[in-house]
Write a structure and sequence with these properties.
binds fe (ii) ion; Hypothetical protein af1432; mainly alpha; 14 helices; globular
C-alpha cells in the first residue's frame, strides 16, 4: 500500500469536495495571474493535470485529486504580490530579487487562506518549494513533514518547468527531465512521487509529456472541476 494512502490530506480533504465558492475564486485568481503573467498561468495548468494524475495513481480519491488539481492551478498565485518587472525579468535575478521571489508561497497562502476548501490549497500554495532534504522554503520542512499534496505539486512543477518551451531558453526533453527528477529523488523530490510521475508520463503520448493536449488549458480544467463541484456529494466522492 502506498504510504500516501495514510497521509492526512487524504482523509481531511475527502470530507470536503472542491466547493463552488473555492473553485470560482480559484478561477478568478488563475485569470488574474494569466493577465499578469501568462507563462506562469499556462505552466500552472500543466502542473495541475500532472498533479491530479499522480495523485490518482498514488491512491487519492477523486475529490482529493480534484483539490490537488485546483491547488496546483493556483500554486503560484503569490506571484501576484511581486513587482511585475521582477516577475517578467529575462536576466538572472540578484540576491535581493531572489529573496523577494521566495516570499511568493507565503503571499499566496495569505490570498487563499479564507477559502472554504483552503486545507489542500494552503498546503500546496505554501509548501510547493519545500525539499525533502529540508533545504527548501519557506519553512525548511523535511520528508513527510511536507504535506503530500505539496510534494506531488513540487515534482510536477519541476518537470513542467523543465519541459516547457520558451523563446528565450531551451527546454529539455521529457527523458532528460525525468533523469533530472530521478537524480534529485530523496534530496529535492519525494522518490515515491517521482516514481508515480514517471509511471504517469510513460503511459501518456508525446502531447501529454509536453503538455500540448487541449486538456492542459486552465479553462478546460476549470470546466472539469466545475462539474465535480456541482455534482451531488455522493457522486463526487468517487
Ligand atoms: Fe512557486
Amino acid at each position: 500500500m502506498s504510504r500516501f494512502l495514510r497521509t492526512p490530506w487524504r482523509s481531511r480533504s475527502a470530507a470536503r469536495a472542491v466547493d463552488s465558492a473555492s473553485l470560482a475564486t480559484g478561477v478568478a485568481l488563475v485569470r488574474a495571474l494569466a493577465a499578469f503573467d501568462s507563462e506562469t498561468a499556462e505552466h500552472s495548468a500543466a502542473v495541475a493535470l500532472y498533479s491530479r494524475d499522480v495523485a490518482l495513481h498514488l491512491g487519492a480519491d477523486g475529490d482529493s485529486a480534484a483539490a490537488i488539481q485546483l491547488g496546483a492551478l493556483v500554486h503560484d498565485v503569490g506571484k501576484l504580490a511581486l513587482p511585475a518587472e521582477l516577475l517578467l525579468k529575462a536576466e538572472p535575478l540578484d540576491e535581493d530579487e531572489c529573496a523577494l521571489v521566495r516570499e511568493h508561497p507565503e503571499a499566496g497562502a495569505r490570498i487563499v487562506s479564507g477559502l472554504p476548501s483552503s486545507h489542500t490549497l494552503l498546503a500546496i500554495v505554501r509548501h510547493h518549494h519545500e525539499r525533502v532534504d529540508g533545504r527548501g522554503y519557506p519553512h525548511g520542512l523535511r520528508g513527510s513533514e511536507i504535506p503530500a499534496a505539496a510534494r506531488i505539486v513540487g515534482a510536477c512543477d519541476a518537470y513542467a518547468a523543465m519541459t516547457q518551451h520558451r523563446p528565450y531558453r531551451a527546454s529539455v526533453t521529457p527523458d532528460d527531465a525525468i533523469a533530472e527528477l530521478r537524480r534529485n529523488a530523496d534530496a529535492q523530490f519525494d522518490a515515491e512521487v517521482v516514481a508515480a510521475l514517471v509511471w504517469v508520463l510513460d503511459r501518456g503520448d508525446e502531447d501529454y509529456r509536453l503538455a500540448r493536449a487541449a486538456r492542459f488549458t486552465a479553462e478546460h480544467q476549470h470546466a472539469e472541476l466545475a462539474e465535480r463541484a456541482e455534482a451531488p456529494r455522493h457522486a463526487a466522492a468517487s
